[in-house]
Amino acid sequence: MKLEPMFIVLEIDEPVRTQVIQLRKSCKDAFRASLPAEITLTGSSGVGPLTLEQSIEDIATALDKVAADTPRFQAQFGPMLRFPETDLFVLTLRDETPFHALHDQLTRSGLQFKPSAFPFKPHCTVSGNPVTAEEAARRLQLTLPAAFTLSMLALYGLQDGQVTRMHSTQLTVPA
User: Fold this and answer.
1) Which SUPFAM superfamilies does the annotation name (predicted)?
2) pLDDT in tens, 34-90
C-alpha cells in the first residue's frame, strides 16, 4: 500500500524531540503534537512530495545511499517564524547550510518529486491552529535553545490523516 503524500524528513533526537512535542502541546495543537518531531527535507518546500510512480523499495534504496554519504550533525533552532498570511508557526534553524546540502542531494538522487510553490526553508512546524493577535505575539517569543542531533533520515506517508514511517535509515557516524 502506498501512502500519500510521501515526504522525507530528518528526525530530531532526544531530548529535544520531547521538547518539540511539549511546545506543540503548549500551543494547543493536538494534531501536530501527535506528529514526529522532524525537519522536513522534501514535501513542503523546495520540492514537493514524492511522486507515486516510485516504489517504496526504490525510494528506500535512494535514502540509504544518501544517508551513507551523510554524517550525523548537530543543529540548533533559531527564532520562531510565522509564515506570511497563515497561522503556521515554525522554529527556524540557526545554520541552514547542512539542510540545504541534504535537500540538494535528495533532489539529485534520482527520486522524482512533485513541484512546490515555495523555496526550500528548513524548519520544524510547531503549530497551525488559528490564533488571536495576542497569541501570535506570544508564540513568536517561544524558543528551544538547546542544540540537538540529527541522525535519522526517514520516509513518511500520510493516509487518512495518520502519519506513518515507511522507511528509516541512520546517517553515518562521523569519523
Assistant:
1) LigT-like
2) 999 999 999 989 999 999 889 999 999 999 999 999 999 999 999 999 999 999 999
Residue 84 included in any domain: yes
Report if residue 121 sits inside a domain.
yes
Give the 3-state secondary structure of 91-121. EEECCCHHHHHHHHHHHCCCCCECCCCCCCC
Whether residue 5 is preceded by a cis peptide bond, meaning omega within 30 degrees of 0, is yes
What's the domain count of the chain?
1
CATH code of residue 26:
3.90.1140.10
Q: How do residues 137-150 score in pLDDT, each as one tens digit?
A: 999 999 999 999 99
Its domain, for residue 99, covers 6-169
